[in-house]
Design brief:
The chain has 292 residues and is an alpha/beta fold. It is 45% helix and 14% strand. It has one domain: TIM Barrel (Alpha-Beta Barrel).
Length: 292
């Protein structure tokens, strides 16, 4: 059931003149896969999915599947605060060839744990591909507690969780459910090695948008038993990771990719370009890490 082990990139969605920039997206996919990334995650938080309409969302996933050509798994974001809409999108993205789905908790509604469990079961029952739970309470206001994971981890279509709560004590509790059929992915780049030390399977990363090779290497080193070198890489990357979250994701990482001539610095409101202070910090660090 495990969709991938290692580094999965939570891809940005490039825009040009208000439209999805498929030319640059194809180049990004080729660069990511050629750099050793283990999976691509499209139309998630980093991909500004909340400002893509359904047609754009579905077409972006379809394009990603087509251009990836089976080289790595394609995991598509399909979450919603409306369960029926999440089911609709999940079914459509399965039809378009997605290998798995990333389902964020319902935002704004702030449902109870009982409602959260029903939400995920309804979605997982509607498809025949694996589902990864996605907990990021800092953005959604809803946490996937260990109690909820306990109820859901044995569902035949639920294969793992992207844990981005930042709460290491909670990660410890969730780690008790990790098995061959249920994976734990770090959703916080500064916590990749700590999560791996608890039995984590890999990461769904923002950092790997700009450093796919190094992010994959760090995780592969740890999984191969070289924990010391992986730890040193985690520590050395911390300043850059901090800069990528100096403003709300994906504002800084798109700015970094723009400086690397990978995408245009274009966002959809309410996201907007980074402040000059953030841009200066990112440029300085990209030079320090020899990325520009």
């Amino acid at each position: 059931m495990t969709l991938f082990k290692g580094a999965g990139t939570a891809m940005v969605t490039p825009f040009e003149n208000g439209k999805v920039d498929y030319r640059r997206l194809e180049a990004l996919l080729d660069w990511q896969i050629g750099s050793g990334i283990d999976a691509v995650i499209t139309c998630g938080t980093t991909g500004e999915a909340s400002t893509l309409n359904d047609k754009e969302h579905i077409e972006t996933v379809e394009f990603t599947v087509k251009k990836t050509r089976g080289r790595v798994p394609v995991i598509a974001g399909a979450g919603s605060n409306d369960t029926h809409h999440a089911v609709y999108m999940s079914e459509k993205l399965e039809e378009k060839g997605a290998d798995g789905l990333l389902i964020v908790t319902p935002y704004y509604n702030k449902c109870t744990e009982k409602g959260l469990i029903k939400h995920y079961i309804k979605i997982a029952d509607s498809v025949n591909i694996p589902v990864i739970l996605y907990s990021v309470p800092g953005r959604t206001g809803v946490n996937i507690s260990p109690a909820v994971v306990k109820e859901l981890h044995s569902h035949p279509n639920i294969c793992g969780i992207k844990e981005a709560s930042g709460n290491i004590a909670q990660v410890v509790d969730i780690a008790g459910f990790v098995s061959d059929d249920f994976a734990l992915y770090s959703g916080n780049d500064e916590m990749i090695v700590p999560v791996l030390s608890l039995g984590g399977t890999g990461a769904i990363s923002t950092l790997s948008n700009i450093m796919p090779s190094d992010t994959a290497k760090m995780i592969h080193l740890y999984l191969a038993g070289d924990t010391e070198q992986a730890k040193e890489m985690q520590i050395s990357l911390k300043p850059l990771i901090d800069a990528l979250f100096a403003e709300v994701n994906p504002i800084p990482v798109k700015a970094a990719l723009s400086m690397m001539n990978k995408v245009l610095p274009e966002y959809r409101l309410p996201l907007c370009p980074a402040e000059n202070k953030t841009l200066y910090e990112i440029m300085t660090l990209l030079e320090d890490y020899k990325l520009i």
